[in-house]
Protein backbone atom coordinates (compact mmCIF):
# COMPACT_ATOMS: atom_id res chain seq x y z
CA UNK A 1 0.00 0.00 0.00
CA UNK A 2 1.39 3.39 -1.04
CA UNK A 3 0.57 6.42 1.10
CA UNK A 4 1.49 9.99 0.13
CA UNK A 5 2.06 12.04 3.26
CA UNK A 6 3.06 15.52 4.36
CA UNK A 7 5.24 16.31 7.37
CA UNK A 8 3.94 18.25 10.37
CA UNK A 9 5.41 21.54 9.17
CA UNK A 10 3.38 21.34 5.95
CA UNK A 11 0.36 20.09 7.89
CA UNK A 12 0.58 23.20 10.10
CA UNK A 13 0.56 25.42 7.00
CA UNK A 14 -2.33 23.54 5.41
CA UNK A 15 -4.30 23.74 8.65
CA UNK A 16 -3.96 27.52 8.80
CA UNK A 17 -3.88 28.57 5.12
CA UNK A 18 -6.66 26.32 3.89
CA UNK A 19 -8.91 27.40 6.73
CA UNK A 20 -8.34 31.01 5.73
CA UNK A 21 -9.42 30.19 2.19
CA UNK A 22 -12.32 28.09 3.33
CA UNK A 23 -11.46 25.18 1.04
CA UNK A 24 -12.19 21.62 2.11
CA UNK A 25 -9.50 18.93 1.86
CA UNK A 26 -8.13 15.81 3.52
CA UNK A 27 -4.52 15.28 4.51
CA UNK A 28 -2.25 12.33 5.30
CA UNK A 29 0.19 13.38 8.01
CA UNK A 30 3.33 11.78 9.41
CA UNK A 31 4.58 13.14 12.71
CA UNK A 32 5.79 12.47 16.22
CA UNK A 33 3.16 12.38 18.94
CA UNK A 34 3.90 14.63 21.92
CA UNK A 35 0.81 14.16 24.12
CA UNK A 36 -2.29 11.96 24.14
CA UNK A 37 -5.22 12.73 26.43
CA UNK A 38 -7.47 10.20 28.11
CA UNK A 39 -10.88 9.57 26.59
CA UNK A 40 -13.28 11.99 28.27
CA UNK A 41 -16.94 12.81 27.90
CA UNK A 42 -17.85 16.36 26.93
CA UNK A 43 -21.61 16.79 26.80
CA UNK A 44 -22.79 13.80 24.74
CA UNK A 45 -19.51 13.05 23.00
CA UNK A 46 -16.66 10.75 23.97
CA UNK A 47 -13.38 12.07 22.58
CA UNK A 48 -9.65 12.31 23.07
CA UNK A 49 -7.03 14.70 21.78
CA UNK A 50 -3.57 14.29 20.27
CA UNK A 51 -0.76 16.83 20.11
CA UNK A 52 1.83 16.34 17.37
CA UNK A 53 5.14 18.16 17.01
CA UNK A 54 5.01 21.77 15.69
CA UNK A 55 1.70 22.43 17.47
CA UNK A 56 -0.44 20.31 15.16
CA UNK A 57 -3.46 19.14 17.16
CA UNK A 58 -6.12 16.51 16.52
CA UNK A 59 -9.51 15.91 18.12
CA UNK A 60 -10.80 12.37 17.67
CA UNK A 61 -14.41 11.65 18.54
CA UNK A 62 -15.57 9.18 15.91
CA UNK A 63 -16.57 6.06 17.80
CA UNK A 64 -14.68 3.73 15.47
CA UNK A 65 -11.43 5.62 16.11
CA UNK A 66 -11.56 5.91 19.91
CA UNK A 67 -9.48 2.75 20.27
CA UNK A 68 -6.54 4.68 18.80
CA UNK A 69 -6.08 6.22 22.23
CA UNK A 70 -4.63 2.94 23.49
CA UNK A 71 -2.40 2.54 20.42
CA UNK A 72 -0.93 6.04 20.27
CA UNK A 73 2.11 6.48 22.48
CA UNK A 74 3.81 9.82 23.19
CA UNK A 75 7.25 10.31 21.59
CA UNK A 76 6.54 7.76 18.83
CA UNK A 77 5.92 8.50 15.14
CA UNK A 78 2.73 7.61 13.29
CA UNK A 79 0.91 8.13 10.01
CA UNK A 80 -2.68 9.37 10.25
CA UNK A 81 -4.63 9.45 7.01
CA UNK A 82 -7.61 11.37 5.67
CA UNK A 83 -7.55 14.09 8.30
CA UNK A 84 -9.76 17.11 7.76
CA UNK A 85 -8.75 20.62 8.93
CA UNK A 86 -11.43 22.48 10.82
CA UNK A 87 -12.06 25.12 13.47
CA UNK A 88 -13.72 24.14 16.75
CA UNK A 89 -15.40 26.54 19.15
CA UNK A 90 -17.84 24.47 21.19
CA UNK A 91 -16.51 23.40 24.56
CA UNK A 92 -13.74 26.02 24.60
CA UNK A 93 -13.33 29.71 25.34
CA UNK A 94 -11.60 30.45 22.05
CA UNK A 95 -11.55 28.88 18.57
CA UNK A 96 -8.89 26.26 17.80
CA UNK A 97 -7.60 25.09 14.41
CA UNK A 98 -7.37 21.32 14.55
CA UNK A 99 -7.53 18.21 12.40
CA UNK A 100 -10.40 15.77 12.82
CA UNK A 101 -10.76 12.22 11.56
CA UNK A 102 -13.13 11.12 8.80
CA UNK A 103 -14.79 7.77 8.20
CA UNK A 104 -11.86 6.80 5.95
CA UNK A 105 -9.14 7.74 8.42
CA UNK A 106 -6.55 5.12 9.34
CA UNK A 107 -3.65 4.89 11.80
CA UNK A 108 -0.36 3.30 10.72
CA UNK A 109 3.16 2.79 11.95
CA UNK A 110 5.61 4.18 9.34
CA UNK A 111 7.32 0.79 8.99
CA UNK A 112 4.07 -0.94 8.08
CA UNK A 113 3.27 0.99 4.89
CA UNK A 114 5.03 2.25 1.78
CA UNK A 115 5.26 5.95 2.50
CA UNK A 116 6.28 8.76 0.17
CA UNK A 117 6.61 12.42 1.12
CA UNK A 118 4.70 14.70 -1.21
CA UNK A 119 6.79 17.01 -3.35
CA UNK A 120 6.25 20.75 -3.46
CA UNK A 121 4.56 20.50 -6.84
CA UNK A 122 2.22 17.83 -5.48
CA UNK A 123 1.36 20.05 -2.54
CA UNK A 124 0.68 23.01 -4.86
CA UNK A 125 -1.51 20.86 -7.07
CA UNK A 126 -3.51 19.17 -4.31
CA UNK A 127 -3.72 21.85 -1.64
CA UNK A 128 -3.00 25.10 -3.45
CA UNK A 129 -0.14 25.78 -1.02
CA UNK A 130 2.85 27.37 -2.75
CA UNK A 131 6.32 27.95 -1.38
CA UNK A 132 5.54 31.55 -0.44
CA UNK A 133 2.47 30.38 1.48
CA UNK A 134 4.46 28.34 3.97
CA UNK A 135 4.13 29.93 7.36
CA UNK A 136 7.27 30.88 9.18
CA UNK A 137 6.93 28.51 12.10
CA UNK A 138 8.99 27.73 15.12
CA UNK A 139 7.79 25.69 18.04
CA UNK A 140 6.61 27.90 20.88
CA UNK A 141 8.77 27.22 23.90
CA UNK A 142 6.39 25.91 26.56
CA UNK A 143 7.99 25.57 30.01
CA UNK A 144 5.00 23.60 31.27
CA UNK A 145 5.38 20.86 28.65
CA UNK A 146 9.17 20.96 28.98
CA UNK A 147 8.71 20.22 32.67
CA UNK A 148 6.29 17.29 32.49
CA UNK A 149 7.46 13.88 33.58
CA UNK A 150 6.93 10.22 32.70
CA UNK A 151 7.26 7.29 35.08
CA UNK A 152 6.73 3.53 34.97
CA UNK A 153 6.16 1.59 38.17
CA UNK A 154 4.11 -0.98 40.05
CA UNK A 155 0.95 -0.01 41.94
CA UNK A 156 1.70 -0.78 45.59
CA UNK A 157 -1.30 0.82 47.32
CA UNK A 158 -4.62 2.54 46.79
CA UNK A 159 -4.14 5.51 49.11
CA UNK A 160 -7.47 7.28 48.58
CA UNK A 161 -9.94 6.23 45.86
CA UNK A 162 -12.22 9.08 46.97
CA UNK A 163 -9.61 11.56 45.70
CA UNK A 164 -7.99 9.33 43.09
CA UNK A 165 -4.65 8.88 44.90
CA UNK A 166 -2.42 5.84 44.40
CA UNK A 167 1.10 4.74 45.33
CA UNK A 168 3.73 3.40 42.92
CA UNK A 169 6.79 1.45 44.01
CA UNK A 170 6.17 2.51 47.64
CA UNK A 171 7.88 5.84 46.94
CA UNK A 172 5.77 7.68 44.35
CA UNK A 173 2.34 9.23 44.98
CA UNK A 174 0.04 9.51 41.96
CA UNK A 175 -2.97 11.87 41.73
CA UNK A 176 -5.32 10.89 38.88
CA UNK A 177 -8.47 12.41 40.40
CA UNK A 178 -8.32 15.69 38.40
CA UNK A 179 -8.89 13.89 35.05
CA UNK A 180 -12.49 12.81 34.26
CA UNK A 181 -11.40 9.76 32.24
CA UNK A 182 -14.27 7.52 31.21
CA UNK A 183 -12.39 4.38 32.31
CA UNK A 184 -12.05 5.80 35.87
CA UNK A 185 -8.52 4.39 36.01
CA UNK A 186 -9.74 0.88 36.71
CA UNK A 187 -6.33 -0.41 35.55
CA UNK A 188 -4.72 0.99 38.72
CA UNK A 189 -4.85 -2.24 40.69
CA UNK A 190 -2.29 -3.30 43.26
CA UNK A 191 0.42 -5.35 41.57
CA UNK A 192 -0.14 -3.91 38.10
CA UNK A 193 2.68 -2.12 36.30
CA UNK A 194 1.56 1.17 34.77
CA UNK A 195 3.16 3.83 32.60
CA UNK A 196 2.32 7.45 33.44
CA UNK A 197 3.25 9.83 30.60
CA UNK A 198 3.32 13.64 30.65
CA UNK A 199 2.41 14.29 34.28
CA UNK A 200 3.26 17.33 36.37
CA UNK A 201 5.42 16.48 39.35
CA UNK A 202 7.14 17.59 42.53
CA UNK A 203 10.04 15.98 44.39
CA UNK A 204 10.92 15.71 48.06
CA UNK A 205 13.70 14.36 50.26
CA UNK A 206 11.06 12.59 52.34
CA UNK A 207 8.22 10.25 51.44
CA UNK A 208 6.80 10.55 48.88
CA UNK A 209 10.03 11.13 46.98
CA UNK A 210 8.05 12.01 43.83
CA UNK A 211 4.42 13.12 43.48
CA UNK A 212 2.78 12.90 40.05
CA UNK A 213 -0.28 15.00 39.17
CA UNK A 214 -2.33 14.11 36.09
CA UNK A 215 -3.96 16.70 33.85
CA UNK A 216 -5.45 16.58 30.34
CA UNK A 217 -1.96 16.11 28.84
CA UNK A 218 -1.41 12.91 30.83
CA UNK A 219 -1.90 9.36 29.62
CA UNK A 220 -1.91 6.41 32.03
CA UNK A 221 -1.78 2.89 30.63
CA UNK A 222 -1.34 -0.58 32.07
CA UNK A 223 1.89 -2.24 30.91
CA UNK A 224 1.55 -5.47 32.86
CA UNK A 225 -1.22 -6.67 35.13
CA UNK A 226 -0.51 -9.18 37.86
CA UNK A 227 -2.67 -12.30 37.93
CA UNK A 228 -3.42 -11.72 41.60
CA UNK A 229 -5.17 -8.43 40.84
CA UNK A 230 -7.77 -9.63 38.35
CA UNK A 231 -10.52 -9.76 40.97
CA UNK A 232 -9.87 -6.25 42.24
CA UNK A 233 -12.20 -3.42 41.30
CA UNK A 234 -10.28 -0.36 42.40
CA UNK A 235 -10.12 2.79 40.30
CA UNK A 236 -11.35 6.23 41.20
CA UNK A 237 -14.53 6.60 43.26
CA UNK A 238 -15.26 10.32 43.55
CA UNK A 239 -18.58 11.30 45.06
CA UNK A 240 -20.69 13.92 43.30
CA UNK A 241 -19.36 16.84 45.32
CA UNK A 242 -15.76 15.84 44.64
CA UNK A 243 -16.54 15.52 40.94
CA UNK A 244 -17.74 19.13 40.95
CA UNK A 245 -14.68 20.25 42.86
CA UNK A 246 -12.10 18.39 40.73
CA UNK A 247 -13.75 18.05 37.33
CA UNK A 248 -15.64 21.33 37.11
CA UNK A 249 -13.26 23.71 38.88
CA UNK A 250 -9.94 21.91 39.23
CA UNK A 251 -7.34 22.19 41.99
CA UNK A 252 -3.67 23.11 42.12
CA UNK A 253 -0.96 20.65 43.12
CA UNK A 254 -0.74 22.21 46.57
CA UNK A 255 -4.50 22.11 47.03
CA UNK A 256 -4.60 18.41 46.18
CA UNK A 257 -1.83 17.74 48.69
CA UNK A 258 -3.71 19.60 51.43
CA UNK A 259 -7.01 17.87 50.65
CA UNK A 260 -5.27 14.49 50.88
CA UNK A 261 -3.66 15.48 54.21
CA UNK A 262 -6.91 16.84 55.62
CA UNK A 263 -8.80 13.67 54.78
CA UNK A 264 -6.11 11.56 56.47
CA UNK A 265 -6.26 13.74 59.60
CA UNK A 266 -10.04 13.39 59.77
CA UNK A 267 -9.84 9.63 59.28
CA UNK A 268 -7.28 9.36 62.05
CA UNK A 269 -9.42 11.41 64.42
CA UNK A 270 -12.92 10.19 63.63
CA UNK A 271 -12.96 6.99 61.55
CA UNK A 272 -13.10 4.60 64.49
CA UNK A 273 -15.74 6.72 66.21
CA UNK A 274 -18.02 7.80 63.36
CA UNK A 275 -17.33 5.25 60.65
CA UNK A 276 -16.30 5.76 57.04
CA UNK A 277 -19.53 7.33 55.77
CA UNK A 278 -19.80 10.08 58.38
CA UNK A 279 -16.07 10.83 58.22
CA UNK A 280 -16.33 11.18 54.45
CA UNK A 281 -19.35 13.43 54.89
CA UNK A 282 -17.45 15.72 57.28
CA UNK A 283 -14.54 16.01 54.83
CA UNK A 284 -16.84 16.76 51.89
CA UNK A 285 -18.80 19.38 53.83
CA UNK A 286 -15.69 21.15 55.09
CA UNK A 287 -13.95 21.32 51.72
CA UNK A 288 -16.95 22.06 49.50
CA UNK A 289 -18.43 24.69 51.84
CA UNK A 290 -15.16 26.59 51.86
CA UNK A 291 -14.80 26.29 48.11
CA UNK A 292 -18.35 27.09 46.99
CA UNK A 293 -19.11 29.73 49.62
CA UNK A 294 -15.92 31.55 50.58
CA UNK A 295 -14.46 31.41 47.09
CA UNK A 296 -17.69 31.77 45.14
CA UNK A 297 -16.83 35.00 43.36
CA UNK A 298 -13.42 33.74 42.29
CA UNK A 299 -14.73 30.34 41.26
CA UNK A 300 -17.18 31.82 38.77
CA UNK A 301 -14.28 32.49 36.44
CA UNK A 302 -12.40 29.31 37.33
CA UNK A 303 -14.49 26.63 35.64
CA UNK A 304 -12.40 24.18 33.67
CA UNK A 305 -12.46 23.91 29.89
CA UNK A 306 -10.94 20.51 29.14
CA UNK A 307 -10.34 21.21 25.45
CA UNK A 308 -8.52 24.46 26.20
CA UNK A 309 -6.37 22.74 28.82
CA UNK A 310 -5.04 20.36 26.18
CA UNK A 311 -4.87 22.61 23.12
CA UNK A 312 -3.74 25.97 24.51
CA UNK A 313 -0.11 26.96 23.97
CA UNK A 314 1.50 27.67 26.34
CA UNK A 315 -0.14 24.99 28.45
CA UNK A 316 -2.12 26.13 31.46
CA UNK A 317 -4.20 23.95 33.76
CA UNK A 318 -5.44 24.23 37.37
CA UNK A 319 -2.48 22.15 38.56
CA UNK A 320 0.06 24.80 37.64
CA UNK A 321 -1.79 27.95 36.75
CA UNK A 322 -4.88 27.99 38.89
CA UNK A 323 -5.23 31.60 39.97
CA UNK A 324 -8.03 30.49 42.29
CA UNK A 325 -6.54 29.14 45.50
CA UNK A 326 -8.23 27.34 48.31
CA UNK A 327 -4.83 27.49 49.99
CA UNK A 328 -6.03 30.28 52.28
CA UNK A 329 -8.09 27.61 54.02
CA UNK A 330 -5.86 24.57 53.63
CA UNK A 331 -2.29 25.89 53.93
CA UNK A 332 -0.26 24.96 56.97
CA UNK A 333 0.69 27.39 58.36
CA UNK A 334 -2.51 29.20 57.39
CA UNK A 335 -1.97 32.47 55.54
CA UNK A 336 -4.48 34.99 54.23
CA UNK A 337 -4.62 38.80 53.90
CA UNK A 338 -6.84 39.08 56.98
CA UNK A 339 -4.23 37.83 59.41
CA UNK A 340 -0.96 38.46 57.65
CA UNK A 341 -0.08 34.81 57.54
CA UNK A 342 0.76 34.22 61.22
CA UNK A 343 -2.12 31.98 62.30
CA UNK A 344 -2.11 28.24 61.57
CA UNK A 345 -4.90 25.88 60.66
CA UNK A 346 -3.59 23.69 63.45
CA UNK A 347 -5.91 25.76 65.68
CA UNK A 348 -8.61 23.50 64.30
CA UNK A 349 -6.78 20.22 63.88
CA UNK A 350 -4.30 20.11 66.77
CA UNK A 351 -4.86 17.85 69.74
CA UNK A 352 -4.75 19.29 72.37
CA UNK A 353 -6.61 22.28 70.96
CA UNK A 354 -4.81 25.63 71.11
CA UNK A 355 -5.80 29.01 69.73
CA UNK A 356 -5.35 32.72 70.62
CA UNK A 357 -8.83 32.85 72.17
CA UNK A 358 -7.69 30.70 75.05
CA UNK A 359 -4.07 31.72 75.15
CA UNK A 360 -2.85 28.42 73.83
CA UNK A 361 -2.80 26.79 77.30
CA UNK A 362 -6.36 25.51 77.61
CA UNK A 363 -7.32 22.23 75.92
CA UNK A 364 -10.50 21.08 74.30
CA UNK A 365 -10.70 18.63 77.19
CA UNK A 366 -12.51 21.45 79.03
CA UNK A 367 -15.52 20.29 77.09
CA UNK A 368 -14.90 16.56 76.90
CA UNK A 369 -13.28 15.70 80.26
CA UNK A 370 -15.20 13.82 82.92
CA UNK A 371 -15.18 15.18 85.60
CA UNK A 372 -15.56 18.61 84.00
CA UNK A 373 -12.85 21.18 84.68
CA UNK A 374 -12.40 24.68 83.28
CA UNK A 375 -11.07 28.10 84.42
CA UNK A 376 -14.60 29.31 85.15
CA UNK A 377 -14.77 27.02 88.16
CA UNK A 378 -11.13 27.23 89.06
CA UNK A 379 -10.28 23.86 87.72
CA UNK A 380 -10.71 22.19 91.15
CA UNK A 381 -14.49 22.01 91.41
CA UNK A 382 -16.30 19.28 89.48
CA UNK A 383 -19.64 19.10 87.79
CA UNK A 384 -20.67 16.88 90.66
CA UNK A 385 -21.59 20.15 92.40
CA UNK A 386 -24.69 19.99 90.29
CA UNK A 387 -25.28 16.26 90.25
CA UNK A 388 -24.25 15.23 93.79
CA UNK A 389 -26.87 14.06 96.27
CA UNK A 390 -26.87 15.54 98.89
CA UNK A 391 -25.98 18.75 97.06
CA UNK A 392 -22.80 20.54 98.17
CA UNK A 393 -21.32 23.73 96.81
CA UNK A 394 -19.43 26.83 98.14
CA UNK A 395 -22.64 28.85 98.18
CA UNK A 396 -23.95 26.82 101.12
CA UNK A 397 -20.68 26.30 102.89
CA UNK A 398 -19.49 23.27 101.05
CA UNK A 399 -19.78 20.94 104.05
CA UNK A 400 -23.41 21.38 104.95
CA UNK A 401 -26.10 19.20 103.32
CA UNK A 402 -28.69 21.09 101.32
CA UNK A 403 -31.63 22.46 103.31
CA UNK A 404 -34.86 22.95 101.40
CA UNK A 405 -37.90 24.65 102.99
CA UNK A 406 -40.21 23.12 100.40
CA UNK A 407 -39.46 19.57 101.36
CA UNK A 408 -38.57 20.33 105.00
CA UNK A 409 -35.19 18.65 104.64
Give a quick rundown of the structure.
This protein is an alpha+beta fold. It folds into four domains: 2-138, Nucleic acid-binding proteins (OB fold (Dihydrolipoamide Acetyltransferase, E2P), Beta Barrel); 144-241, Nucleic acid-binding proteins (OB fold (Dihydrolipoamide Acetyltransferase, E2P)), CATH 2.40.50; 249-327, no CATH class; 351-409, no CATH class. It is 27% helix and 23% strand.
Describe the structure.
There is one protein chain. The protein has 409 residues and is an alpha+beta fold. It folds into four domains: 2-138, Nucleic acid-binding proteins (OB fold (Dihydrolipoamide Acetyltransferase, E2P), Beta Barrel); 144-241, OB fold (Dihydrolipoamide Acetyltransferase, E2P), CATH 2.40.50; 249-327, no CATH class; 351-409, no CATH class. Helices cover 27% and strands 23% of the residues. It contains 13 helices and 15 strands. It has a five-stranded mixed barrel with strand order 2-4-5-7-6. Strands 10-11-12-14-13 form a five-stranded mixed barrel. A hairpin with a 3-residue loop joins β11 (165-168) and β12 (172-175). It starts with a strand and ends in a 22-residue tail after the last helix. Mean pLDDT is 79; it is low at 294-299, 322-332, 337-347, 360-365 and 379-383.
Amino acid sequence: MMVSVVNVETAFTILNKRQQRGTDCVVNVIGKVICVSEVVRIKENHLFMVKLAHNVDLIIKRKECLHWQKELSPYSEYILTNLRPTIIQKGSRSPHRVFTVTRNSQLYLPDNVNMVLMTESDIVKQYGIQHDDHLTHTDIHDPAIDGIFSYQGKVTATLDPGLGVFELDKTVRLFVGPVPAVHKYSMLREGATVLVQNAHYTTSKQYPRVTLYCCMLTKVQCVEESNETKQQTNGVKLNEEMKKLLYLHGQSQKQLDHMFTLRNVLKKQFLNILGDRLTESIFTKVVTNIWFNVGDQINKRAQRMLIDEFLNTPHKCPLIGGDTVIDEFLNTPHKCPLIGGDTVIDEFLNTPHKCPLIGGDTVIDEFLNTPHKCPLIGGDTVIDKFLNTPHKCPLIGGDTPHICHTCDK
